[in-house]
Amino acid sequence: MKQQHYSELGETLYSETLANGLRVYLLPKKGFHKTYAVMTTDYGSVDQSFVPLGETKPVTQPAGIAHFLEHKMFEKADHDAFDTFAHFGASSNAFTSFTHTSYLFSATHHLKDNLVTLLDFVQDPYFTAQTVNKEKGIIGQEIQMYDDDPNSRAYFGTIANLYPGQPLADDIAGTISSIDKITADDLYLAHKTFYHPSNMSLFVVGKLVPDETLDWIRENQAAKQFAKPAVIQRILPAASSKVISHRILNMPVERSKATIGLRGFDSLPTGLERLKYEDALSLGFTLLLGETAPDFLKLYDQGVIDDSFGYNIEIQRDAHHVIMAGEAEDPQAFEEAILSILKGFTEKLQRASNRFEAVRREAIGNTLTSFNSLEAIANQFDDQLYAPASLFDEVKVINSLTLEDVIDTMSHFLEAATISRQEILAGN
Amino acid sequence: MPKQLAKGVWLNVMPTTQFKTISMTVDFLVPGSAPELSNRILLAQLLETSSAQYPTQTAMAEKLSMMYGASFGVNVFRYGKAEGLRFSSTIINDHFIGGHSLLNEMIDFMQSVIYQPLVKDRAFDPETFNRQKQNLIAYLRSLNDDKQYYAEQQLNALYFKGQPFFATSLYGDEASILGINGSDLYRDYQTLLAHDQIQITVAGDVDEKAVAFALSKWGLTDRQEQIENPIFQRPVTAVETATESQKLQQSKLNLAYRLPVYYRDERFYQALVFNGLFGGTPISMLFKNVREKNSLAYYASSRFDGFTGTLLVQAGIDQSKEAVVKQLIDEQLVAISKGEFSDEVFNQVVASLINARESRLDSQRALVNHSMLDHLVRQTVSAKEWVAKVKQVTPAEVAAIARQVRLQAVYFLKGEDLK
C-alpha cells in the first residue's frame, strides 16, 4: 500500500490499485467517530454515447440514464440496499454529476459490514421492467421539483447555453420524456460498461485502520469475477464552438436573476499544473469580484449586486467554465457591470498587488477548513482530473502562486472564453 | 463545565484537537416576540457587514482574509420560546499557518464588531442601514421563490394562528422590517447588549484560561438569566386548512400535527424513534410507502420539534394526488399506532438515529450548538447518555406515541398547469 504524508495538512493518505483495477484511497482521521466511504464511477450524465464493453458498435442512450441508474442500484431482488445499510446503522445516499456517479455511506459502527454492503450493491445490478417503470414516477417528481427552482434553472440553463446540442446541455436527470424511454436492458448495458472496477475508485475517510480496511476490500473484490478491463470508448460530440450568447427565461419568481457563463476554449495543462491553473483562476476571480475588491463594494453600494452574488470555477473531464450569478433588480445592469470589470482585468489585477496576500491566505484557510469535513474531503477528491496531483496538494500550490501566475492564467482563460448571459424574469 | 463570567454570562470551552479550526460563538438570548424577530434579523444583516472599525464589506472581508480566511457571520435562531442573535467565527489552528496565533485576534475582532457598530448620532449609519434594510427585504422576497420553504412557512402560520412569535418566519416580516428606523434599532441593540443572557462557546485546540483572559477585556456585566424554560406547549385547536394555487409543476402538501412530548422529557426519546419510523429516515414508512411503493413523490418526510411539540410532514407531489397522499400518510400513522411494523425496521431506525447522533460529534458546529442547548434547558445529555436512552425505547412505546399525534393544520400549494 502506498503511503503519502502531507505535512502542510497533517494528513497521511494510503492508496492502492487492486488487481481488478479498483483504485482505493484510505485516510484515517484521528479523533473522529464516524467513517465516510464513497465509491465513484467515472460515468455521468454526459456519457450517453459509447461502445458497450465487449461490443464494437456505438450506442446512444436516453438523456438522464446515469442518474436513473444511480436511483435503481439500491433496489435488489429481495431487499433494498438502504435497509441493509440501516441494519448496520449507516446512512447511505448517492449523487450523479455531469461526469461522475457516487455512492456513499456514513457510519459510526460496523465498518466492515457497511463496506461490503457498498461494494456489493454497486457491483451487483438488478433491474426489471417493473422496477424501472416504478422509478419513472419518482424521478418525474424530482425533475419537476428542480424545474420549479429558479436557482437550478439559472445554473443548468446557463450550462445548456454554453454547450448547445451537446450532452452537457441535457439536464442531469433528463426529461420526463427521455427517462420514459429507459429500459432495464439499457441500464444493464451502461452498468456493464461503466461500473467495471477499473473505471471506479473508493475513498474511505475517518475512523479506520488502513491495513485492516484494505484487507476487507481486497477480500471482497478477490471473490468476484469481472470481465477483462478495457479502455472505454466514449463517443464525444462533434467539436462545436457554438454558444447561445443570450437567453431570457420567464418564471413566476419574485426576484429576477442574472447569470453569466464563460466557456473556456483554452487548452488546459495536466497534473499539478492543472491544479495550479484552477487555483490561479480562483484567486483571479476573487481579486476582481470577491468581497475585498473595490469594484465589488462599488456595485454593492449602487445596489447592482447584493449578498446573493457568487461565482464558481468548474473544471471537469473535457470542459471548463466559470459561472457567475446573482439576484438583481436590474439583471442587464448586473451583467454589463460584471462584464466591464472582466474586460479590464489585466490592469485591475496589476493594481491588486496589495490585496494578493490577503486573498491567498483566505484560499489557504478555506482549503484547510475543508479538511475538517469527511464528506468534503471524499467528495472533492478526484484522482484523475489532476493526476498525479490531487486536492491534497492544494495548500502547497496556493502557497507557490504569484500575482504574475494569476494574471497569466486569467489571460489564458479570458482571452479565449466565450460569454453567455441569461436572465430569469418574473412572468409566465 | 461552563464558567460564569458575570451573572447571566456563561463561557463554555471545549478543548479538542480533532479539528483544524477553532470555532467561537457568542449568543444573545431572550424570550422571543414577533417584533423582536424582525429587529434581530435586521441587526444580523447590519452587523455582519459593517462596524465602526470595519465600516464596509471590503474592510471587513480584508481583515478576515488576512486572518487566513476566518469566517464571520451573524444569524438568528429560535428554540421554542427562546430567540437568539448569534455571532460566530472560525479560525485556523496556529500550527497549520506557521504559528500565527489568531485566537486573540479573533476575540478582539468579535469584541469590535459586537460592541462598536457603525453609528452616527446615536443611530445606525443611515446609508448602511438603508442599504441593508433593502437587501434584507430583497432576500425575504427571494425566499418565497423556494417553494419548499414557502409552503412550510404558510403551514407554520396556520398551525400557530394567534401565536405571532411562532407564526412569523424566523426572518421576520416585511412590513415590520420596513417600519424599523436606525435610531430605534440602535437603542434596542443597546438594550440587547446590556440585558440579554449571553452564552459564549469555544471549541478547538484552546484552553479555557486563555479564552477567559481574552474575554476579561470585554467588560461583561451582570444581567438576568432570561430563559427560564424555552418549551412552548401549544394548546389543541380545530384543524386549520388552506389551499393556494400557483403556477408550478410540482404541488406541495404540508401537514402539522400536535405531539405533546417535549425536548428531553421522559418520552422525548420515544418520540424521536417514532419520528424516525414515521418519516424521519429513508427507511421510514412515509419514504417506503409514499415514495418507493407508490411512486407518488421524490420527497416525503417528517420532522419533530420537541421545543413546541410539533410534528411536520412534507411531500412534493402531483396536483391530482392530494387526497391519495393524505390518506397514505394517515394510514402510516394508524399502522404505527397499532404496532404494525417489524422489529427489523424498528431496530434499523434506532441504529440510524444512534449513527446520526454519534456523527454529530464530528462536527465542530454541532458541538458548539449542543453546548448552547444544554445550557438553555439546564440539563447536559452526553452522546453516550443519549444513545443509552434511545436504546431503551420499545416498539410498544413508539405505538403509544403515535396515538398521541393529532392533526392540526393542512396546507396545500397547488401547482397550476403552466400552459
Automatic annotation (TrEMBL), chain A:
It comes from the Bacteria. Residues 62-174 form the Peptidase M16 N-terminal domain. GO terms for biological process: proteolysis. One of its GO terms (molecular function) is metallopeptidase activity. Pfam families: Peptidase_M16, Peptidase_M16_C. Residues 181-348 form the Peptidase M16 C-terminal domain. Keywords: Hydrolase, Metal-binding, Metalloprotease, Protease, Zinc. InterPro entries: Metalloenz_LuxS/M16, Pept_M16_N, Peptidase_M16, Peptidase_M16_C. Belongs to the peptidase M16 family. This is Insulinase family protein. It comes from Secundilactobacillus folii.
UniProtKB/TrEMBL annotation, chain B:
GO terms for molecular function: metal ion binding. Residues 182-353 form the Peptidase M16 C-terminal domain. Transmembrane segments: none annotated. InterPro entries: Metalloenz_LuxS/M16 (IPR011249), MPP/UQCRC_Complex (IPR050361), Peptidase_M16_C (IPR007863). Gene3D superfamilies: Metalloenzyme, LuxS/M16 peptidase-like. PANTHER family: INACTIVE METALLOPROTEASE YMFF-RELATED, METALLOPROTEASE. This is Insulinase family protein.
